[in-house]
Specification:
Helix content is about 75%, strand content about 0%. The protein is mainly alpha-helical. It folds into 2 domains: about 160 residues, no CATH class; about 170 residues, no CATH class. A two-stranded antiparallel sheet has the order 1-2. Helix 2 runs antiparallel to helix 5, helix 5 packs across helix 7 and helix 9 crosses helix 11. It is globular, with a radius of gyration of 21 Å.
Length: about 375
């Protein structure tokens, strides 16, 4: 019986392994997230800040909700992630296309924890669909029904709980913001930075919590520590392509490597624990733009654009007379210089200790 099950799984290309789910699926999901939610946010930011009519114009209205080009991209984040996961799992066409519905359901019901819900539910739905695919003469009916049925049921059952767990993380961040700036800077920077790299939407969490002000500045610091840290650390292995895709894209691309060797995560986390309190206590870096920008880091420079937008808003409201050299120095040091210096330094120490080896950061 055991041999028959093994033979069936092999024939269906169902590989229950950490590599297949923790590396291949995670890496693909990060790309799906980037091609939808993050790109959509970047498009919206460019449109509003550069006053580009073709990016801010309403192009569709669905159930009373208006969508711009960026808004449409953002709305498709669930389907994009689920389809990317299905592609990584080698799903046949009927399963792959059915995951569009699964991704939408799990992301919508998961709330701030939508990406995490999509990861688990899309994997299970994909494997269920693969198992039944081409096993009946009415495959075109059975395969989508099984894939979508499993996905929607699991979404209704699991996604809200996963979303609640994600919001609990958000509550912890809110608790951290009530502390004095030093401790708040460390906690918020580390937690939001970790959320940025994990399959959790740090941007959605920051938006849901309305994370602005000093707490938003600490969040930006943590995100930049992860993105710039990984980008610069892995430059010898990934070159310019890796530098741009992580530094201006997402550090979630490293999740597969983190699963293989969690110690590579130590340098950017330590960096965020340093830059966070520097942002709140020394530079008084505040995010007074849109809250979603707090969780974007250097992705498309949305975090930095948000800070600058906050400065402009404060001057327009008479709350700030000018932008000082200290303001610009803080933004540049916290977002780019310190992460680019500290993370490689910590990585060098870990390599000397034998905890990290050449190739551990290769994408």
């Amino acid at each position: 019986m055991k041999d028959r099950i093994k033979a069936f799984l092999k024939r269906k290309d169902i590989e229950i392994s950490l590599k297949r789910y923790g590396i291949d699926a995670l890496g693909a999901m990060a790309q799906g997230l980037f091609c939808s939610l993050l790109i959509g946010t970047i498009i919206n930011t460019l449109g509003s800040q550069l006053h580009l009519p073709f990016l801010t114009r309403i192009v569709a209205t669905v159930n009373g909700t208006d969508y711009t080009v960026g808004g449409l991209a953002t709305a498709m984040s669930g389907p994009a992630m689920a389809t990317a996961i299905g592609y990584a799992l080698h799903c046949p066409p009927l399963v792959l296309f059915s995951l569009i519905t699964v991704g939408f359901a799990s992301n919508a019901l998961g709330g701030a924890g939508g990406p995490l819900a999509v990861l688990f539910i899309a994997i299970l739905s994909a494997e269920a669909g693969k198992a039944i695919s081409r096993e009946t003469k009415i495959d075109i009916l059975v395969t989508p029904l099984v894939t979508i049925g499993v996905g929607v049921l699991l979404s209704a059952w699991w996604a809200p709980a996963i979303g609640k767990a994600a919001m609990t993380t958000g509550s912890l961040i809110m608790w951290a913001t009530s502390l004095q700036p030093l401790l708040m800077g460390i906690l918020v920077s580390v937690f939001v930075g970790i959320a940025l790299t994990l399959p959790i939407s740090s941007a959605a969490i920051c938006a849901a919590l309305g994370l602005t002000g000093l707490a938003g500045g600490a969040a930006v610091a943590g995100c930049c520590a992860q993105m710039i840290g990984f980008a610069v650390m892995s430059f010898p292995e990934n070159g310019w392509g890796g530098l741009v895709s992580q530094g201006l894209g997402t550090s979630m691309l490293q999740m597969g490597n983190i699963v293989k060797n969690p110690r590579i995560w130590i340098p950017p986390i330590l960096t965020s624990a340093i830059t966070g309190p520097l942002a709140t206590c020394l530079f008084r870096l505040e995010m007074n733009g849109t809250p979603v920008s707090s969780g974007m880091g250097t992705c498309g420079l949305v975090g930095q654009i948000g800070v600058v937008t906050g400065w402009a808003n404060e001057m327009a409201e008479g709350l700030r007379s000018s932008v000082t050299a200290m303001d610009w120095a803080g933004l540049i040091m916290i977002c780019f210089v310190l992460p680019g210096l500290l993370s490689p330094l910590f990585l060098w120490i870990l390599k000397r200790a034998g905890w990290v080896r050449q190739g551990d950061l290769t994408l």
